[in-house]
User: Which sequence fits this backbone?
């Protein structure tokens, strides 16, 4: 990698030993992937995937102390992934004891984040790019993020440029203000290796379509055709909610960091099929393929016929439009079934910014009256508690299904279950 | 004895028994329980990885195609190294992925427990190596496998 004189001086210790180590880490990272240079981060804000103070991860917090004690902070303010705990989410005494043990470093870590440059004490969410949070990069911005669903959304829907970085590395990028230029930061790295032809008879469930594509293309870039007939050619609130959930499933069921949707996402609109590599393979997704993918999900509940004890919706965190639409839907279905409240304890998750806006509306109270709990929690962090793992939890999130014991159902199925329609 | 040559991601030497994952190695799922509950043998907790589920990972030559899963993966590898619970070395048949690279590089620069990491060893390497075979890693990225 060719460094500027200033970068070389930093590497040689001009800004201290710790900053030299930070830069050396980024240089080695770039060297691994053939980066020729370090380029400045251009987004206004960063975002860190690490939002949890887990006791066993103390080496991470020790490392962060080492950086902070050297007088280094992030060169850009940043947001963070969702908090792992929220007392509004149901838990029993034993689960609470384990939570307390698991997340005993939470206070220490949140203090570190403040010192590094967290934008606001409320800015903990995986959907930092939504307008209610305000960390929305512009097209072409260079980012140093790591949260897989946020990287996927920023690259694909916003046209920003970010590699699928790891936690810690992304904060080091923000400390240095630099990232190595490779992969999704280059024009060639953004070309599509796969053409996905959507040939379903109805609008495909985003979480299922994303899962099928992610499992098939793994870390490659797909160019999706035929989706515009179902979600249109305008990036409106409905399309954004759809792509958020679709993208998160591609990122977690595979490791997709960027996708293009024909006639919809910015680079596909601008460059069309010239984005597709000549040797791109074709993957056809029809009703049967989606059914096959869903049928192959393992059920890892001890008792597959257990009654669900909890339902999580909103991983990644819901948009304001999704909260509104879901409230309408749950209320209508409860009414049709002659019920007042959901029959399975149900938690919907959204960013503190979205929750704040939602609470200003009448619909918030409709949701509360329907018995739904609204939280800013990270459901993944909740499910990591061994005492929660053994509980039969259902979800409409394919990301949550992938990383935990939660069992996936489509949104239609989930709404039927929580409103008693399946009885 | 069979020899393979790969690219050095993090230099070093090691000699350890092989532990082979033919599918993608999910770093978070593999290490999470072992780290959380202080398992000295660091048994693999990824129930989706039938090759190595419940097998000890500590001090092995972990042979794998690539890592998969959460982008906390690099942080987990770093933590395992910092706590002295990492494999003796990691040997990738494919070019290394960004998450594993991050973990290995963080371990090399920020802990006293750096582990040698070699990538691009090729598909034949992963087809040949079996659990328990002794693997010797040289500074130049050459590995020798003793049956």
Assistant:
């Amino acid at each position: 990698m060719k460094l500027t004189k200033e970068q070389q001086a930093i590497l040689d210790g001009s800004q201290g030993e710790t900053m030299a180590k930070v830069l050396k880490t980024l240089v080695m990272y770039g060297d691994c992937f053939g980066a020729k240079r370090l380029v400045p981060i251009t987004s206004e804000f960063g975002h860190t995937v690490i939002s949890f103070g887990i006791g066993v991860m103390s080496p991470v917090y020790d490392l962060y102390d080492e950086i902070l004690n050297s007088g280094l902070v992030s060169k850009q303010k940043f947001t963070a992934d969702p908090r792992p705990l929220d007392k509004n989410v149901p838990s029993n005494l034993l689960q609470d004891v384990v939570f307390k043990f698991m997340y005993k470093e939470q206070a220490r870590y949140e203090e570190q984040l403040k010192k590094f440059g967290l934008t606001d004490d409320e800015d903990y969410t995986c959907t930092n790019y939504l307008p209610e949070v305000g960390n929305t990069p512009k097209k072409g911005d260079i980012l140093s993020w790591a949260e897989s669903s946020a990287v996927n959304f920023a690259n694909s829907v916003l046209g920003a440029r970010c590699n699928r970085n790891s936690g810690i590395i992304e904060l080091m990028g923000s400390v240095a203000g630099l990232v190595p230029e490779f992969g999704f930061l280059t024009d060639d790295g953004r070309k599509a290796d796969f053409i996905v032809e959507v040939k379903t008879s109805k609008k495909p469930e985003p979480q299922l379509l994303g899962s099928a594509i992610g499992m098939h293309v793994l870390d490659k870039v797909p160019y999706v055709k035929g989706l515009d007939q179902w979600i249109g050619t305008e990036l409106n609130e409905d399309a954004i909610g759809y792509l958020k959930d679709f993208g998160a499933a591609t990122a977690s069921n595979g490791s997709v960091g960027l996708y293009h949707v024909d006639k919809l996402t910015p680079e596909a609109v601008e460059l069309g099929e010239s984005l597709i590599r000549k040797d791109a393979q074709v993957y056809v997704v029809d009703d049967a393929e989606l059914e096959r993918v869903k049928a192959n999900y393992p059920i890892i509940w001890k008792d597959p016929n257990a009654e669900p004890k909890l339902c999580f919706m909103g991983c990644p965190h819901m948009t304001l439009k999704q909260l509104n639409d879901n409230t309408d839907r749950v209320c209508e279905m409860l009414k049709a079934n002659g019920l007042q409240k959901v029959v399975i304890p149900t938690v919907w998750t959204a960013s503190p910014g979205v929750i704040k806006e939602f609470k200003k509306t009448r619909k918030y109270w409709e949701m509360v009256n329907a018995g739904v709990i609204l939280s800013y929690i990270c459901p993944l962090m909740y499910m990591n508690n061994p005492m929660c793992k053994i509980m039969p939890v259902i979800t409409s999130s394919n990301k949550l299904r992938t990383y935990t014991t939660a069992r996936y159902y489509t949104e239609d199925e989930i709404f039927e279950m929580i409103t008693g329609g399946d009885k | 004895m069979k020899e393979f040559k790969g690219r050095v991601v993090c230099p070093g030497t090691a000699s350890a028994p092989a532990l082979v994952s033919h599918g993608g190695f999910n770093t978070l799922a593999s290490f999470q329980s072992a780290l959380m509950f202080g398992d000295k043998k660091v048994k693999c907790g990824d129930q989706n990885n039938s090759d190595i589920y419940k097998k000890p990972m500590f001090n092995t030559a972990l042979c794998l195609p690539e890592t998969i899963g959460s982008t906390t993966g690099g942080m987990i590898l770093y933590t395992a190294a910092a706590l002295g619970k990492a494999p003796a070395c990691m040997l990738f048949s494919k070019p290394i992925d960004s998450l594993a690279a991050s973990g290995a590089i963080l371990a090399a620069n920020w802990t006293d427990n750096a582990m040698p990491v070699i990538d691009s060893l090729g598909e034949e390497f992963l087809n040949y190596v079996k659990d328990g075979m002794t693997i010797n890693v040289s500074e130049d990225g050459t590995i020798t496998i003793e049956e």
